[in-house]
Design a protein that fits this description.
The complex is a heterodimer of chains A (about 150) and B (about 140).
Chain A (H helix, E strand, L loop, with lengths): L1 H32 L3 H10 L4 E5 L16 E5 L4 E8 L2 E13 L5 E5 L2 E10 L2 E8 L9 E7 L3
Antiparallel strand pairs in A: 1-2, 1-8, 2-3, 3-4, 4-5, 5-6, 6-7, 7-8
Chain B lengths: L1 H66 L8 H12 L1 H5 L2 H18 L5 H21 L5
Classes of the chains: A alpha+beta (about 150), B mainly alpha (about 140).
Chain lengths: ~150, ~140
């Protein structure tokens, strides 16, 4: 008798656990589906933890680590800081800035890095994830400037 | 003595009457000129408004054709016509907000050509452009 009660309790517990897992999955899927463009952009920018984005024209010398020829690396962290390494005078100059995302309109997400502000775009080029920091022209005669970066993991 | 007094009054009234007549004529001329000036300004604003309406309508049709192209592939002829208007007629009539949305739509076309955009985004940009046109027309409607 005792053992049959134990079995029914065990089966009941499993049912509750299964139901809980099912409900949790549904909530997780629903919340993922409801993730807004800002959350989506943030997830793409930082990944699970920190993501490094390398400028398209980056070249680094094979010798000592701090030596470089040209390029720029942005490492975005979820805590709202970005470490920027810029190749100047053959060495990497490092600085840290704060970053944040804002939505200008349903199509445009703006990333502010320190005092600078860009439209943020993501694309895929030759199976590599691309981040584009765009300065949209404020008049027809001025150029729109795209700064293209590739994900270092790719 | 009384006749002399009467003569003075008569003379005074004649002078004042003449002055009033001159002033009334001057006011009339001034009012006429103001009216003509306002009419000219209104006619000019109306002509510009109609030109703006015509240009916006043409560009709106092109933007619609590009955004809702059959098979999701905009015709190069439509893109070329849009660019011709972008660097041509539109400069004559657009305001700052319309210019900004024109730049955004053109950039979206370039992104689409490079595989960075979609027909859905093109449609949303076209929608933004139409709304900017509508606001521009409303804000610059000539007042009689």
């Amino acid at each position: 008798m005792r053992s049959s009660i134990g079995i029914s309790r065990h089966v009941g517990g499993r049912r509750i656990l299964t139901r809980f897992c099912l409900q949790f999955s549904i909530v997780a899927v629903a919340s993922a589906a409801n993730a807004g463009p800002i959350e989506d952009a943030q997830a793409r920018l930082t990944g699970d933890g920190e993501r490094e984005w390398l400028s398209a024209g980056i070249t680094s010398w094979m010798s000592s680590d701090p030596a470089c020829a040209s390029g720029e690396v942005y490492a975005f962290k979820p805590d709202g800081t970005v470490t920027i390494r810029i190749c100047m005078d053959s060495t990497w100059k490092k600085r840290s800035e704060k970053w944040s995302l804002n939505q200008d309109n349903p199509l445009d997400i703006r990333v502010t890095i320190g005092a600078d502000s860009y439209l943020l775009l993501f694309a895929t080029a030759e199976q590599q994830q691309q981040m584009i920091l765009r300065t949209l022209a404020d008049s027809k005669v001025n150029p729109t400037v795209d700064r293209e970066f590739y994900l270092s993991e790719d | 003595m009384e006749d002399r007094h009467k003569w003075y009054w008569d003379l005074g009234l004649k002078i004042v009457g003449s002055l009033l007549t001159v002033v009334a004529i001057l006011v009339g001329v001034w009012q006429f000129n103001i009216g003509e000036e306002r009419k000219a300004v209104y006619e000019h604003a109306s002509a510009l408004w109609l030109k703006r309406l015509e240009t916006y309508s043409n560009v709106a049709k092109l933007a619609g054709s590009i955004a809702a192209a059959p098979g999701g592939q905009p015709a190069q002829a439509d893109i070329d016509a849009f660019l011709a208007a972008y660097w041509g007629d539109m400069i004559l009539v657009e305001d700052a907000e319309v210019e900004r949305t024109m730049i955004a739509f053109r950039t979206e076309i370039e992104d689409f050509k490079r595989g960075r955009s979609s027909t859905d985004r093109l449609k949303q940009r076209a929608d933004q452009l139409m709304k900017a046109f509508r606001e521009s027309m409303k804000a610059r409607e000539p007042q009689p």
